[in-house]
Request: fold
Amino acid sequence: MLLAIIFAAAPCAAQEAVRPFEAAYVWVWHGLTVAESTLKLEREGDHWIYTSHSTPRGIGRMFSERPSMRSVLRITPEGVQPLSYKADDGTSSTKRAIDVVFDWEHKRIIGVYEDTPLDMPTQPEIQDDLSVQIALLVNVRRGHVPGKLELLDKNQVREYNYQREDETTLPTVLGPVDTIVLKTQKTGSPRFNRYWCAPGKGFVPMKVEQTRGDEVQWTMQIERLALK
Reply:
C-alpha cells in the first residue's frame, strides 16, 4: 500500500503532476537487511506505468519470494485513476497473485485478487497498492495532503488517513535532503507509516518507515534515484 508547506513554484498542471523516475530502496526489517526494491515510473502516451520489483538481500535470501507489481494509471486534474494492476510473489503459488482491471466507463473493478474472483463497483477515490503512491505524490506536488485514500483489498476497500507531521533534513546516501514527513494510518490499525518526501527531488520518498507503538517494524531507505 499521501501540506502545510509553502511552494515557491507555480501550481503544477495535470501533465506536470509527477516526473518519471527510477528509485532503489534497501528494506530493513527489525534491524536486518532483507531486500532491495526498485520502483520505476514511466510515461506511455496518456498513461503512466509504475512498477516495483524486489530482490532478496542479506537474510532475505533464505526466502523464495521475488515480489513484483505493475500498475497502469492516468493522471487527470481530479487526481489519479488506476486502470489495471498486476502483482505476484515470484513463485508458482497464486495465493499472492493479483490481476484486476478498473473499468471506469462501466464503473466496475473485475479480475482475480489472491484467488478471490472480483467484480465490484468502482469508487471515486479507490487506488491499488502502487497507484496510491503516485496519488500521494500528485497531491503533495499540487500543494496538499490528500486527507484519506482508499485501497482495493480483495473484494473490499481499505481506508487510509494522511496528515503532515514535520519538516526535517534527512541524512541519506545521496547526502542531506530536505524533506516533509507525512504520516498515514489504516483506519482501525495500530500501525503507522511515515514518508520522508523530498520537494527538491519531485517529492519522491527518501525513506518509508512502519511503526507499531514505539517499535520500528521495517524501513525502506533510498539507495539510488534518477529523475527523468
